[in-house]
Amino acid sequence: MVTVESGAGHPNRGVLLFSADAAYRLLAYTHQHAAFRLGDGGVLPPYRAQFEITYRCNSFCRHCCKQHRPERLDDLPRELLTAHDWIALAHSLPRFTLITLTGGEPLMHPGFAEIIAGISRSRVMNLLTNATLLDAEMIDLLLRARVVLLGVPIYGVAERHNAVVCAPNRYEMAVDNLRRLRSRQRARGQRRPLLDLKTIVTADNLSEVDHLLELAAELDADYLTFSLGYDNPVMLNPFLKPDLSHHDFQRLHPFGPTDKTVRREFARVFRRLLEQGDAGRTRFRFYPSFPSPDLAEAFFLEPERFTGRMLPCTCPWGTIVVNPEGQAFPCLSVAVGSVRERSWRAVWRGPAFRDFRRTIRAAGALPACWGCCYVSIDFSSFARGEHD
């Protein structure tokens, strides 16, 4: 992670963003590791809950882990949870649980306004959206609601972004709506929700990183998050497996660039981003998280030293995901129970989730975890100078 200094008009914003993010990361780390030490039965409740309220979407991103394609829409899990169900689920979770609303495109849920207003009565949340449906009414709703962070994917210049999402004018729609959002926030003197521009960096848009920096500056984005592309059929996939026996959980899946020439260019660009992190208003975030420019460069130039090497994962002790049907899963796409049939506590502490945690504890992390945003690469041997 790189902290960016505060800009004019926000004298301590960079420090505040760093402090808030660092505090959340510390709390998450403490919670997960305490839960991990207490065993695999889900003694401590989740500190993070991801609500995938709909798999409808008005874009068809080529890399979408939901496999959202026009020809597959009828196969995706249906919205069996009502707006009332989502609100009740949110209010049954502990007050410290951070709820993230996502999809699909969550604004396409017919009860979205009811969901966000209902959850806001006593809970805070993040919202992941492509921002194309943020009309004036929806913007006002978000500013009234307790949305602390708005995550919006942008993949490059307009032509590139629209090609990636396989739909026309999506870049223009999203950026125009974000401009209106920022204008309304300034008029109200309101900083919340924070804006996180998210991009998946590929060989195709690597040359457009400077455009993303310029856009982040124009929109006064609080964060600009860079992730590497991956192709993983069992990570956050809507078609859940009954258990971990499927062979896809036991193999590494493509993560990041493979071509040597492209990796060299990635190393150059990521080093520059890490080294220039003290300029501008926006804080950069990287998935995977690189401890230093040298280690980022080594990751791209010497992939054989790091591929598949992960620190032990404690995510299943702190995170629960629920899909539109009410099926819960940990992170990898394994069904662990339905919140339509049982309470989240019964699912969280049930035998399927317990077995999943037990497997992860024994393995540290599965090969299929390679590329997950929440699993850290083990840089320790390289950092100690063990280069041979």
- Residue share in β-strands: 5-15%
- N-to-C order of helices and strands: HEHEHEHEHHEHEHEHEEEHHH
Q: Counting H and I runs of at least 4 residues, what is the number of helices?
A: 12
Computed over alpha carbons, the radius of gyration is 20 Å
Number of strands: 10
Helix content: 25-40%
Q: Describe the largest sheet.
A: 10 strands, mixed
Shape: globular
Mean pLDDT comes to: 91
Strand order of the largest sheet: 7-6-5-4-3-2-1-8-9-10
State the end-to-end distance.
27 Å
**Poorly predicted sequence stretches spanning 5 or more consecutive residues:** 1-12
**SS content category:** alpha/beta
Notes on the protein architecture:
- Strands 7-6-5-4-3-2-1-8-9-10 form a 10-stranded mixed beta sheet.
- It is built from 12 helices and 10 strands.
- Helix 4 links the parallel strand 3 and strand 4.
- The radius of gyration is 20 Å and the shape is globular.
- Helix 2 packs parallel to helix 3 and helix 8 packs antiparallel against helix 9.
- The longest helix is centred in the N-terminal third of the chain and has 25 residues.
- It has 388 residues and is an alpha/beta fold.
